[in-house]
Amino acid sequence: MVNRVVTGAHYGLRDWLVQRVTALVMAIFAVVVVAQLLCQPAFGYDTWSALFSGNLMRTFSLLFLLSLFYHAWIGVRDIVMDYVKPASIRLVIHVLVILALILYAIWSVQILWGM
Amino acid sequence: MKFRIYRYNPDVDAVPYMQDFELNMESGDAMLLDALMMLRKQDDSLGFRKSCREGVCGSDAMNINGRNGLACITSLSSLKQPIEIRPLPGLPVIRDLIVDMTQFFKQYHSIKPYLVNNDPPPETERLQSPKERLALDGLYECILCGCCTTACPSFWWNPDKFVGPAGLLQAYRFIADTRDQDTASRLDNLEDPYRLFRCHTIMNCADVCPKELNPTEAIGKIKDMMVKRAV
Fold first, then answer.
1. Is residue A85 part of a domain?
2. Which residues from B are below 8 Å from A12, CB to CB?
3. Across the interface, do B226 and A82 touch by the CB < 8 Å criterion?
4. What's the domain count of chain A?
C-alpha cells in the first residue's frame, strides 16, 4: 500500500483525443491504399512507384506516417509507464523514443520526396 | 460438491496454498455463500467476509472460478466443479479470502464522494427534475464491493495512481448530479495520465459487476465532458 500518492500531472485528454484522431487517419489511409492497389490491373514496382508519384498521395502518406509516429509515441509511453517504475529510467526511455520518432519523421520525408 | 479454496494465514503459513474441501449437499437453489458457511463449520479457521448475504453490502466479493463476484448471489448450480475460490486479485491478503481494501477506498475517497454545494441549504431538500434524477441511474447503485476494480489490469499495475472503475463510476455519479457545483474541479482532479487515462476500455469492469453497472460507460462520459469543455 502506498500512502503518499503523487499524481495530478493535469494532462492526458489531448493525447487520448490525438490517439483516436490518428487512428482514424491511419484507417482511412489503409483503406485508400488497398482500394488503389485493387484497382490496378497488375502489381509490380511500376504500380507501386506510380501510386506514390503524385504529390497528393505523398502528402497523404506523410500525414499517415506522422499519425503513426504520434500514435506510436502515446502507445509506447503507456507501456513504459506501466512497466518501467524508476522515473529516471522512464524519462531516458521517453526521450530516446521521442528522438527516434522525430528521426523517423525526417527519414519519411526523405523517402517520400526522394532527397 | 468439490471446492478448492485459497488459504493463507500470514502468522502461520510461509506461502499461500490451495486446500481441497468436500461438501455433502445438492446445489439446488443454494448460493456459494451458503456452501462457504457450511465449510466453515468443517474448518472454523476458514476466513471470509460476509454480512447481508443478499448482494447489498458487498462484503463477500471474491474470485470464483477465475471471475470476480459476490458469493451470496452466485448460485452453486451455475459453477463448474471443483469450485476454485480465491481472494480478490491485486489487493494484499489479510487472511484466506479476506483482502485489505484500504487502497481501494483511498482511491474512492480521492474523488470526493459527496455532494459539494455552496448555496445555503433550502428549507426542504434540493430538488431535481425527474430527468435530472434519471441521469444518476446506473451510477448510484454501486455497493463498492471491489469486483470491478480488482478485475482491472490497469489497477493491478498502478493501484496507487489509477482511480479504478469503481472510483471513476462514483466520480461520474457526482459529476452527473445537477445539485453538485464542483464539476470543474472534479474534472481537473481526473485530468491525469494515470488517474483517468490508464483506462484502456477493456471492459473487465462491466463484465464482472454483480449489480450489472457499466463503469466503462461512465468513464467514457467523463472523457466526453472533458472534450466538451476543451474544444
1. yes
2. 191-193, 196-197
3. no
4. 1
